[in-house]
Amino acid sequence: EVYFKNLSKQKQKEVMEKNGKNHKLRVCVATCNRADYSKLAPIMFGIKAEPQFFELDVVVLGSHLIDDYGNTYRMIEQDDFDIHTRLHTIVRGEDEAAMVESVGLALVKLPDVLNRLKPDIMIVHGDRFDALALATSAALMNIRILHIEGGEVSGTIDDSIRHAITKLAHYHVCCTRSAEQHLIAMCEDHDRILLAGCPSYDKLLSAKNKDYMSIIRMWLGDDVKTRDYIVALQHPVTTDIKHSIKMFELTLDALISFNKRTLVLFPNVDAGDKEMVRVMRKKGIEHHPNFRAVKHVPFDQFIQLVAHAGCMIGNSSCGVREVGAFGTPVINLGTRQTGRETGENVLHVRDADTQDKILHALQLQFGKQYPCSKIYGDGNAVPRILKFLKSIDLKEPLQKKFCFPPVKDNISQDIDHILETQSALAVDLGGTNLRVAIVSMKGEIVKKYTQLNPKTYEDRLELILRMCVEAASEAVNVNCRILGVGISTGGRVNPREGIVLHSTKLIQEWSSVDLRTPVSDALHLPVWVDNDGNCAALAERKFGHGKGIENFVTLITGTGIGGGIIHQHELIHGSSFCAAELGHIVVSLDGPECLCGSQGCIEAYASGIALQREAKKLHDEDLLLVEGMSMKKEEVVSAAHLIQAAKLGNTKADSILRTAGTALGLGVVNILHTMNPSLVILSGVLASHYVNAVKDVINRQALSSVKTVDVVVSNLADPALLGAASLVLDYTTRRIY
């Protein structure tokens, strides 16, 4: 720490010498509304307190200058700041067009102001449309931009605006570690990112012990006690105005029913704000004895009000950010703050579509006290920001640099490249064979290679790489462009990391294996890895019966029993990547032993291994072969012999198959009662032998509400290979990595 402080001092000294000993950094702070001023004011006080380093110019625009929103520029004057310029930029209206026109008006007026001020750096806060106009003007006029609170995630159009400002800004001050990582992921220069915390927390964390009862009485009445009132602050959601108006109406109805003194703040300037005000007046909120409706509360007083409230409700970022510093319960309504980091004091009501839901949330939250949260700051943001400003070297090139990740094998666009068939390299690691195929976008297997799966890890990995390299080379000859590699393997797989966590007993030496890295390094291609059952489900979703189906289940009936679950068009992996181990659904407490160590699993009855086991028992007792069957002396007894015997009239073989079909059917019934899919697809070599038995069990055992499910046999010849290919084709063509 001492070393860092000394290094920082030395850097500041060098910067001062470079910039000129007497040069002060001219900082323009532009504020658009009451919310951003609460974040910018602490920085402005800090800049003003160090006149030997900084010159401060304040520009006020947006809703600060509108009477309907409290003429909040006055609080800037009360804080003893000289306002250099006032810009009326809001075009009054109630739709999205008014917001666009407001941005345009600001863009028209700002160049003249910036030409006169000639700031070294402009400080812009947040994600409002006014801020986008400020950042655009400054960037085009070659003025350095410091963006406060970039990298955060929330709902509505705010995300897009915030990230657009990030791309225009030269320096970034973020509040949380996640926000910092988001900025780095957005290719911003790490050296120009400061993790400082939220500036408003510098004031919040020292505010709660001040006199507050007089403030509460002033805004809510003399008879109100602490923790016995509500603060409500709700804004329109610009991407779904109609729904947000309805949600506000339901909120007011719930608050009226809850019957507690409530301070309601007017919404901010956004499309739909006037309609929300009309809803307030329609319900008589301004004259209701339990409500106080106000356009604006000074931030110092607002802090005290939320710090001692019984609850805060609405969709303001203040609820999920600042209020956590006091542990006040918060009810966050709708999607406007989706993605924000929150403390345990926040209860989310994402789909606030009924009054009862909101009322129930009020009953759960009101009057509680939660631990204070410091997710967004520790109270020392402003000193860090001032130090960061002092370190800015004005002699550095103005053009910002982006830190793009390395891209391998950048191919120029030419006619041959365009005419190539987009394809995937698919790998299927089975218990017996290792297969590699070139699969086209339409699911056509252009070329396939098959080898026996080696028994050791080293031999297996070497063979995978050799076969993949050979297939990739051959792809050029068959005019296919390989977009990536998809690998289907037995066992439990972490698809995010491309690691086989645990393998089945059929594939030895195949646990804790990183498949992605060696294959990607050898081929210089992106690599996806998943379980073979999941791949079968993905194959059905892209090429088979599951195409266009929202909820379905695939069951693989082969050497083992596996499967995959598609729910709302997405594959379910589970919290530990163990979802859809359908072969290990227990259908009997005292059934035969399974390879997993349990008893009575579907796999112990209906898998190829289970049928082979029963066939051997019959063969050892000379009860397998019937008229029309023959076996060579050295021939290994298999499930195929059992099926043949049953077809030729062997009653014992037929009984075993019916028991296996019943076990599989009971497992499917359990799946229907748990997931309620509209389609069940049986895949694999045994599927056609089981389909009728499964349907019979569903008709006998399932609830009437799920008996209408369709049960079909897959028409895909190679579901594992096609599923491995779809891992690549579904992602690379959508540009999602």
Automatic annotation (TrEMBL):
Zn(2+) binds at residues 584, 594, 596, 601. Keywords: Allosteric enzyme, ATP-binding, Cytoplasm, Hydrolase, Kinase, Metal-binding, Multifunctional enzyme, Nucleotide-binding, Phosphoprotein, Transferase, Zinc. Pathway: Amino-sugar metabolism; N-acetylneuraminate biosynthesis. SUPFAM superfamilies: Actin-like ATPase domain, UDP-Glycosyltransferase/glycogen phosphorylase. InterPro entries: ATPase_NBD (IPR043129), ROK (IPR000600), UDP-GlcNAc_Epase (IPR020004), UDP_GlcNAc_Epimerase_2_dom (IPR003331). Its main location: cytoplasm. Residues 53-390 form the UDP-N-acetylglucosamine 2-epimerase domain. The active site is at residue 532. NCBIfam families: NeuC_NnaA. In the N-terminal section; belongs to the UDP-N-acetylglucosamine 2-epimerase family. In the C-terminal section; belongs to the ROK (NagC/XylR) family. Homodimer. Homotetramer. Homohexamer. The hexameric form exhibits both enzyme activities, whereas the dimeric form only catalyzes the phosphorylation of N-acyl-D-mannosamine. This is Bifunctional UDP-N-acetylglucosamine 2-epimerase/N-acetylmannosamine kinase.
